[in-house]
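All the exercises in this workshop are built on plain-text protein records. A record pairs a protein's sequence with a compact description of its fold. Read left to right, the backbone structure tokens trace the chain's path through space. Once this layout is familiar, the rest of the handout is easier to follow. Here is such a record, shown just as it appears in the course material:
>
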Amino acid sequence: MSIQATKRSRTVHDVSCGRALRERALGQAGSPDPVPMALIAPIAATIAEHCGHRLLKCRRLAMGWTVAQAVRSVHDLVEAEQLGKVGLSERSWKDWESGVLPSPDYQDLLCRLFTTNPVGLGFAHDYSLPAEADEGGPLWSAGQGGGRLREGEAAGAGTRPWTFTEVEETKRRDAVKLAGLAVASPAAAAQILQQAAAEAMEFTRQAEATSLGSGTLDHLDLAITEFNHAYSLKPPKAVFDSVLDYRRKVDALLKARHTHGQERELFAFAGWMSELLAWLAHDLGNARTGLAFATDAFVHGQQAGHGQQAGHGQLCAWAMDAAASINLYEQRPAKAREAALKGLSEAPAEHPLTVRLHAQAARAAAADGDAEGFTAAFRAAEDAHRRLPPRSARRFGMDVLPLADYALTSYPATSFIWLGQAEAARRHAEHALATYQSAPEASRSPSREAIARIDLALAHAQLGDPDDAVTLGHQALDSARVVDSVLGRAGDLTSFLTRRYPRQAAVEGLRERLSAANDAAHPALPAAPPGA
């Protein structure tokens, strides 16, 4: 029976016993104040031997702390040494004292607090061989001090409690151990194999070690869902700031300790947040930032692993959908088509996203003046739409079929405007506007409705009806969500009206209103002081 098993089989004493042992030891030492850490270690060892508590609890009792005082001491340490804030509670501390292993970061913090090492707190085992069985000295070293950190000696910030000794010495010791297994007595061989089993268990524990709390991934999933629901309902600047804050938190989690499975999930969460940030940056009028986040979302979708977790190919495809739209509004139709085709290589065949990406490619062809390319790509979108399964796909709890339906109505309206086919543009724009207006309130998209009105206004302007065009333009600017894409398309409308109807007062009024909306959305930077 092992020493650990022997201890746990004994009756565990009440904490009052440990406190009495502490007071006796301090009295024998002359009641020093403050108590030196060099005295805490032997007191803790005495409590462990006599009372049967786990080593972390023995250290606390040796310090004379309650659990609340110990937790407070950790927070004081974090503040004094300007470490990262922690959310340590009494519940977590009690869990550790009952045998739950703290995360590596908390282990390091506790070792700092008690100026000891993981072995001294019961978080690790010392597997160093006795000196006579290991001519090279301890297998593990903490530097010049030998095998284990001495009691009262703490691992400094940024250092690991254990490091490898020189390579050649390690190789020599390993050879001795392997040879010893071959020639050892059955009892000695069994002991060596038993130690190897213990090491294997430690390897497994390290592989499963993580800094993530049990609810972290669930919390991130809920946060992304809420952000996606807020996208069309709240000002883009407010949503952008909140999502970016969470994106930074996920980046910090990716740099911390986690399992391989958790890493894939974190890559996916990072990608989904960057995909949303791409759209928000586009709404805020910063194409460069939008494209950077779209690329980041695509890369993290790939890192998440298509075969490992369902939906990560979709993440890559959604990222390219954002890139296609941003490039179109930046008047880079070739780049937009390239992004759409890249997304199609990742999207599932029978998914509404495939419809949308074909429609994106069609819109890019129209922007490039390629009528035949538009027709071919739009037919592919219609064919993909007919092949969709009866049950619609969902994204963060929301039905994505409307996004495919909208692409088949609003995208051709815009495309026919660019191709100069005004009557076809009018029909599709009216259909798109009716579709948006009939959507359930929770699914309404004010910015898409505004763009549909602008498409319809441009069709009326091309057909020789400037009054209706101006009225529709004002209605678009009345939208509850006038984002940069709306302002950009409204600029196309006023430019066309100004060229076609230069002496219309109503046209000038719309142009002035758009100018004021642009100034409000993009305030000028304050002028530099003279001599700056």
Observations:
- The chain has a mean pLDDT of 81.
